[in-house]
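Researcher: First entry.
Model:
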Amino acid sequence: MKKYLAEFIGTFWLVLGGCGSAVLAAAFPDLGIGFAGVSLAFGLTVLTMAFAIGHISGCHLNPAVSVGLCVAGRFARKDLLPYIVAQVLGGIAAGAVLYLIASGKADFVTGGFAANGYGEHSPGGYSLSAALVCEFVMTAIFLFVIAGATDKRAPAGFAPIAIGLCLTLIHLISIPVTNTSVNPARSTGVAVFAGDWALAQLWLFWIAPIVGGAVGALLYKFVACDSGCAAKT
């Protein structure tokens, strides 16, 4: 149970830190942190938690990561559903805390509430197809980096830095398109408080990241397979 609790806490921190930076700190015209600040906040949540709980649960914090690593044979199937449940509950708990904090402002309006969307709910007005491609590709690359950085042949101790910086870069690229998900738990955690439109579009931010994550993890497995591995297959 400790690893499931670690995933709950880690995902809670990711959603609270990342989405919280968007809802609370990016809203001020003169003092706001902007896209770059929000991107860095998401990267920092993963980096800090990877050092804190990586040795306990692997610090997935993301159903797409858990599914991708499972498909690639790097994560036990028996733990997949409990991990996803813990991650989603952690995301929703963070969304609830963020809502309580944000609603303490006199002129608070829920608005987008850092939810992910396409079409009229895309920050840049990008279409459903653009959002689908973006989320698929970004999550595939994310899993490719995660699988490579945590490979036993990779330099030890540097995986959290590589993964955190990768997530930062992903946000720098894709915030204008979908407000960046690459994580179904992150999307769900705020969608339940953002309103009907966010829940109606949530399907994309489950399907695209999970399929993209599986493809990215399998792609790394293929690229990293040495001659001995190839002989076995």
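Researcher: Second entry.
Model:
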Amino acid sequence: MKYEHVVVEQLRGYGRMLARLKVLQATPVGNGMRLSHVSGDDKLQELHRKLRGMPSKLYLTKREQEVEAAARTYLKSYPLGTKAQLREAKLLIGETAYDHALLRELTTGIQAVLEARVGTAEGIDGVLERLAEIQDIEQEKARIDEALAALEEYKATYSRLLRLRYIEGRAVEDVADELCVSRRTFERWRPQAVREYANLVGFGYLS
């Protein structure tokens, strides 16, 4: 069963994955902040939502209004997060030198927001990479948690067996005692539990 190795490795890596997530979130990024402080969407978006209902001329200078107009002209999408906005803005190229200068000013302005939060411009790309890794780990963790929770709904003992044996790394005898079954029963249940989990997460195609 090809999927068995994949399932076991995924579940055994759960603890290591959580440890990596903890280390990433604790990474200092300047100004006394840690990566966990900037992993969520920017609080500036709340202010932006409030300002949207007002004419921009009430809170932007003439130059800032020109930059805003250039952004509206060239942006094909309007991502909510400042990090996503920076990635989008870097790809823009103005049709005229003046437009291009406005777009570069837009990029500089967004980058300045990030610099104020993460220290230096040189560290921004590194921070964005770490944030992407955090997101990937959180998605993988959610995938495992959801599969085990779904398995628990109709085969609670299988879900518990997998958690105890592979995520917690308990010995076979300890798991069997915890489940109040013999080792022989454990050995019969284990491959069945792995197969059920594999089907839930889509590993069945490996069989």
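Model: Note on the second entry: The chain has a mean pLDDT of 80.
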